[in-house]
Amino acid sequence: MTLGNDWFTEIHADAGSAFSLKLTKKLHEEQSAFQRIEVFATEDYGNLMTIDGLYMVSGRDNFLYHEMMTHPVLFTHPAPKKVVIIGGGDCGTLREVLKHPGVEAAWQVEIDERVTRVSEQFFPELCERNNDPRAHLLFDDGIKFMKDAAPGSIDVVIVDSTDPVGPAEGLFTEAFFRACFRALGDKGVIVQQSESPLYHGKILKALHAAMRAAGFGQTQTLFFPQPVYPSGWWSCTMAGKNLDLKTFRETDARNKAFETVYYNADIHRAAWAMPEFFKRLLEG
Ligand code: SAM
User: Fold this and answer.
1) Cβ atoms 137, 129 nearer than 8 A
2) Beta-carbon neighbour count of residue 160 at 10 Å?
3) pTM for this one?
4) Which ligand 1 atom lies nearest to the CA of residue 112?
5) How remote is the CA of residue 163 from the centroid of ligand 1, in Å?
6) CA-119 nearest atom, ligand 1
7) What is the tens place of the pLDDT at every residue in 265-284?
8) Which residue of 19, 68, 237, 270 has the fewest C-beta atoms within 10 A of its own C-beta?
């Protein structure tokens, strides 16, 4: 939703809040088979992509989200080789996954090819590893892909989807997590973008319950800032088959051979720290 022609404003109606960015130019708009995709140039946040009128990715702050959706889960798995990204059409998550030299193959299963093509044009920095021989860009429904995946064939699943509405709704269900559980190997782990801890407690509580009902022994939410998303405080939630999610390859993380802007081993550890209200929410 936009208010005034030089600002883009997303109103969070249920929370009585909104977030605006000063625009300098509209760069693109189209109605794909799935959603409305728009791209703007902003005064201080680089390029901005929105989907169906909601903030999706900005040049300035996407590093927070893409790094926290990838490095904690990859350093939690003992030896991640085969990674599947559901959604992630802007390719920022794929870029971070492929920084891990041990990863042998990464499949990005994005339902809407237009998101990737628009990202290639307006966010080339997010797409810089799309031609890595380990990258496989598929344009399909992640729910179907997971249903068809061979049992035990995947080490890490990253669900980088839109909010739990429309095509993404099914990605937050027990049925989907059962399919992930079956497709993951013995030490398999999944991480899912899990909305705002401040605004979306109900979604988070239901997500933990659905993951556990699907058979995952442990679930763990990580917290991090994300200015363009509702409340500016975001989360991702991991679920492990036979893994203690509170341990990770800390030495590897401390000695990582690639650069990040936000993630490091201390941030990883701090992101587990559970706020008191959140403990009560999950126990309640
Ligand atoms: N960081 C964003 C967020 O937290 O809202 C998500 C970014 S990414 C652009 C979200 C992608 O999920 C969209 O491109 C959308 O097309 C894709 N998506 C939604 N449902 C999907 C499904 N069932 N299978 C595959 N991709 C899906």
Assistant:
1) no
2) 26
3) 0.97
4) 16
5) 8
6) 9
7) 999 999 999 999 999 999 98
8) 270
193 CB near ligand 1 (under 6 Å) = yes
First to last CA, the chain: 35
Domains of the chain: residue spans and CATH: 2-58 (2.30.140.10), 62-283 (3.40.50.150)
| Cα(162) to centroid(ligand 1), Å | 4
In short, whether 89's Cβ falls inside 6 Å of ligand 1 is: yes
Ligand 1 in reach of 195 Cβ (< 6 A)? no
Return the amino acid letter for 73: V
Per-residue model confidence (pLDDT) at position 3 = 52
Distances (CA, A) of 184 to 94, 157, 228, 246: 19, 8, 32, 19
pLDDT averaged per 10 residues in sequence order, the chain, 284 residues: 76 96 97 97 98 97 98 98 98 98 98 98 98 98 98 98 91 97 98 97 97 97 98 98 94 97 98 96 93
Q: How does DSSP classify residue 42? A: E
Q: Which residues contact 99 (CB under 8 A, 6 or more apart)?
A: 129, 258
Q: How far is CA 153 from CA 148, 229, 235, in A?
A: 11, 33, 27
What are the tens digits of pLDDT across the range 36-75? 999 999 999 999 999 999 999 999 999 999 999 999 999 9
Share of the chain above pLDDT 70, in %: 99
Q: Which two tokens stand for residue 264?
A: 């490091």
User: For residue 112, how far is its CA from the centre of ligand 1 (angstroms)?
Assistant: 8
Question: Rounded to the nearest whole angstrom, what is the distance from the C-alpha of residue 51 to the centroid of ligand 1?
Answer: 9
Query: What contacts 114, CB < 8 A, 6 or more positions away?
Result: 30, 32, 33, 34, 37
Q: Is 113 in the pocket of ligand 1 (CB under 6 A)?
A: no
Residues assigned a catalytic role: 160
Alpha-carbon distances of 37 from 122, 144, 214, rounded to whole Å: 12, 23, 33
